[in-house]
Write a structure and sequence with these properties.
alpha/beta, 14% strand, 369 residues, globular, TIM Barrel
């Protein structure tokens, strides 16, 4: 067993929460909750497989944060009341029973919501129609509608929703920490993106100003959960509705975003790219992982994106670039016991796209594996 291989199985902690290895399960929307957003026994079995299979950290799918405009999809789970929070307890208990830790990812869909039972229409930082098409495997169809620009009151409500959901995740559901979803085109990412945020007030401007909404959420969540619970943030360039997007300001934007998060005292930054080891920008050589490490040198760093190759070459590459953990999505779906397979030198199965189609809900075959 090589030193590089060994490093994937060394323990680490995030703000005092111990992890047995460097393998994490990436958040993946599976639209398998009840219509009213309650986690199910089927979902508990789904998450338990990853803990039983050797992953050190599980990150849940995005959980909507309020009963206004946060919900993004039909059958998406939420964290808006005690009943929804308590429904996650069996998931948390199963993860702990098998030696894993689990954090709740909290999200607000904003302008790209395509299934909200609470409100008609959508909200975003500006009244700009989102690019791309709604996702059929999440019950969507056609173009996204143009959102209404958020008022100061709506912004304050959204920030409070993140904080309240995070509080329920820790105090009522028992999660080990919280990840704020700031990636993939959802509301926080809409504030970070120059073409979807055309505001001229304190929430808009260059990247150093567009990060204000994210920092407001981080501050509110930290105030709610306290300093002893890990608080992380997921960041990306690409979006579910604009896959190839790159930050217009290049490394300057990376410095503004990652540097601000470091200054805000987040415990982890979760960087996700389609291929996490590749240069973030055409005129540079550093990956987004490398840039996050440069501008947030003391923050735990999770890397996600194409890192499930059986030879582990890509995982080693991002670890060498500064990542502390490697998060797997498709690799975990195809191999819920990926860490155990790697540790015992067993073959790794290829991902079957049928798992996510025609609807991306949990399939019976997954629970039988």
């Amino acid at each position: 067993m090589s030193t590089s291989h060994d490093s994937l199985f060394t323990p680490i902690d995030i703000n005092g929460v111990p992890l047995r290895n460097r393998f994490a399960v990436a958040p993946m929307t599976r639209v398998s909750a009840t219509e009213d957003g309650t986690a199910t026994a089927e979902m508990a079995r789904y998450y338990e497989r990853f803990a039983r299979g050797g992953f050190g950290l599980l990150i849940t799918e995005g959980l909507y944060t309020d009963r206004a405009f946060a919900q993004g999809y039909r059958h998406q789970p939420g964290l808006t009341d005690t009943a929804q929070a308590h429904a996650w307890r069996p998931v948390v208990e199963a993860a702990h029973r098998h030696g894993a830790r689990i954090v709740a990812q909290v999200m607000h869909a904003g302008a790209i919501s395509q299934g909200n039972r609470f409100r008609d229409g959508t909200l975003g930082p500006s009244a700009v129609q989102p690019r791309g098409q709604q996702m059929a495997f999440y019950y969507g169809q056609g173009a996204y509608p143009t959102p209404r620009a958020m008022t100061e009151e709506a912004i304050a409500d959204a920030v409070q929703g993140f904080a309240d959901a995070a509080g329920r995740a820790v105090s009522e559901a028992g999660f080990d920490g919280v990840e704020i979803h700031g990636a993939n085109g959802y509301l926080i990412d809409q504030f970070l993106t120059e073409y979807s945020n055309r505001r001229t007030d304190r929430w808009g401007g260059d990247a150093s100003r567009r990060v204000a909404f994210l920092l407001a959420v981080v501050g509110a969540v930290r105030a709610k959960v306290g300093g002893q619970v890990p608080v992380g943030v997921r960041i990306s360039q690409g979006k579910v509705n604009d896959f190839a997007h790159r930050w217009a300001g290049g490394e300057r934007d990376a410095e503004a975003i990652f540097g601000s998060l470091a200054d805000a005292g987040v415990d982890a930054i979760h960087v996700t790219e389609h291929e996490a080891w590749k240069p973030a920008f055409e005129d540079g050589s550093d990956s987004l992982v490398g840039l996050a490490r440069r501008f947030a040198p003391k923050v735990r760093l999770i890397a996600n994106g194409g890192l499930h190759d059986p030879a582990r070459a890509r995982a080693r590459e991002v670890l060498n670039a500064g990542a502390d953990l490697v998060a797997l999505g498709k690799g975990a779906l195809a191999n819920p016991n990926f860490p155990d397979r790697i540790r015992t030198a067993r073959d790794v199965a290829a991902f079957d796209p049928a798992l996510l189609g025609p609807i991306a809900n949990i399939k019976p075959s997954e629970l039988a594996a």
